[in-house]
Amino acid sequence: MTETKKRAAAWGEALRKAYPEARCSLHFETPFQLLVATILSAQCTDEKVNQVTPALFKRCTTPASLAAMAQEDLERMIHATGFFRNKAKALIGAAGMIARDFEGEVPRGMDELLRLPGVARKTANVVLGNAYGRAEGVVVDTHVGRLARRMGLTKENDPAKVEADLMRLFPKEEWVVLAHRLIAHGRAVCRAKSPSCGTCSLAHLCPKVGVPERAGSRS
Predict the structure, then answer these.
(1) Average pLDDT, the chain
(2) Would the pTM of this model clear 0.70, i.e. be above it?
């Protein structure tokens, strides 16, 4: 086992103990609701998305009903999530394709999901992992990428390359929950500008790559 593999195994165990209940923070009841919420979460907090989606899900109960919405109406409903014009266009396009090409069901395959407007690999991984229990990859958002670099698990900045490194280092059965645990740690402790290194329960494992000196990380 390589040193990086050993480091990853130690991180995996430490994260499991620190965040045993970590799970998707977006609220959803169906795969389609999760797809919508994930598209809305781009450049937006999950908390804000969870405030917006109840009214949207009440009005649009199926892909066909969302696809039939006027874009201006959808834009008003999702305005608070930011980038609302692009998101509305993507949602209507994705909903229409699901209704037309997939018999109203969100597809269960990576290739099919990537055909949908507004869906890149991160969104597809969220849906597959959390709606269908399928580990096709690791969700790499800003938290996951930042922590993977700080923990010495990757030197890459490109999300696809970070994902590839994490997939090599961790067993497939951990891919889905690994992202949730890294995101939880990134939000609560290992923040971008002010990481709480002094009180971090995982600090003994961390090389703190790229952590600013002012964070007290080298003490």
Answers:
(1) 95
(2) yes
